[in-house]
Amino acid sequence: MESRILPADLPNCKLNDYNYEQGFDEQLLIISEFADCFSCPICHGIPRNPMIIKKCGHFFCECCIEKQFEAANLQDIDGRGVIQCAVCKWHFNEMSVLPFESFYTAMKKVYHLVRLRCPNGCPFIGDPQELDRHQSFQCDLREVRCPSIGCEVTMPFHQLRDEHVAVCPKLMIYCESCLLPVKREQLKEHNCKERMAAAIKGIS
Predict the structure, then answer these.
(1) Is the pLDDT of residue 2 over 60?
(2) Structural domains counted in the chain
């Protein structure tokens, strides 16, 4: 029986995509009234990785603020980009933006009271930070890319784990004789003595 190498926390392949990183759809809220408390004025979702503007107190998704700074046409005297608050039109630079860790304690507590369903349709329910971790690294239904070098397959994690991993020719598995990793497609031609000698010499 083959011993397979497959990380359980493979990241969602949509990470770093703006359409994924922006706020959570308000339809995922368990209690819809929370939409009035927390809503990013740029993407109109429940903020993911919320940021707050020190001067006016309005908050946004981290990726929404970053996208606006990337497109900023104005600069301050120090050359930093300047953008407008989408709510009050206050001008500010990146030095005026605080991360979630700097929020007032009361605001943090309210944010953690928000409950959202997993957008993938699984039974998970959690606060925005918990859902972010779940959707990105834990949900069995998240879209992942096969970690094997040379394999371009993308599919839900549970299918990768339960189906694809059993047949992927590029997947690294452990040889039962020498216990060293080797690609499945190379297992038949794999020479344990040569592989062990190379490993001892530090040759990958």
Answers:
(1) no
(2) 2
